């Protein structure tokens, strides 16, 4: 790959993984009130209780006793995937799993709320971006994966 194209590719990959990871971490921050209470501009939940209620809305087929566990599982997954994407650690697996998680979310939103909300929130763009990142043969040099690979070559 020509040097100029390689640099463009690395920069695009860097921006994509940072955007995806920051999006996950921002959603987690919202459900813990870090962006402010519900009613604040751009705040979807404002606290975990509201997020659990939203989880119940998107999972009407789930027993009520399971909903808090689903909310915590989603929160844990989004936190871990967000950190992995931002740092570039286990990037292929993190990107693939983030695409799967977001696809499940988007399909659930579509089934319960209709197609308008997932399209407005770019849910399927997250899926596509995640899987594009997972499919890339090489990543930018600014990942922990790249640092680890360099250290292994020099050992």
Automatic annotation (TrEMBL):
Keywords: Membrane, Transmembrane, Transmembrane helix. The chain crosses the membrane at residues 65-86, 93-115, 121-142. The keyword Membrane applies. This is DoxX family protein. It comes from Paracidobacterium acidisoli.
């Amino acid at each position: 790959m020509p040097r100029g194209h390689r640099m463009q590719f690395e920069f695009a990959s860097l921006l994509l993984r940072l955007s995806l990871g920051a999006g996950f971490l921002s959603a987690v921050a919202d459900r813990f009130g870090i962006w402010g209470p519900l009613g604040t501009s751009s705040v979807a939940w404002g606290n975990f209780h509201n997020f659990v209620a939203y989880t119940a809305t998107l999972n009407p087929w789930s027993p009520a006793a399971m909903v808090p566990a689903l909310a915590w599982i989603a929160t844990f997954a989004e936190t871990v995937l967000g950190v992995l994407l931002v740092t570039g650690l286990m990037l292929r697996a993190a990107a693939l799993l983030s695409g799967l998680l977001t696809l499940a979310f988007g399909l659930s939103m579509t089934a319960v709320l209709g197609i308008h909300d997932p399209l407005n929130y770019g849910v399927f763009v997250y899926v596509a971006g995640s899987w594009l990142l997972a499919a890339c043969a090489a990543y930018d040099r600014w990942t922990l994966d790249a640092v680890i690979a360099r250290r292994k070559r020099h050992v």
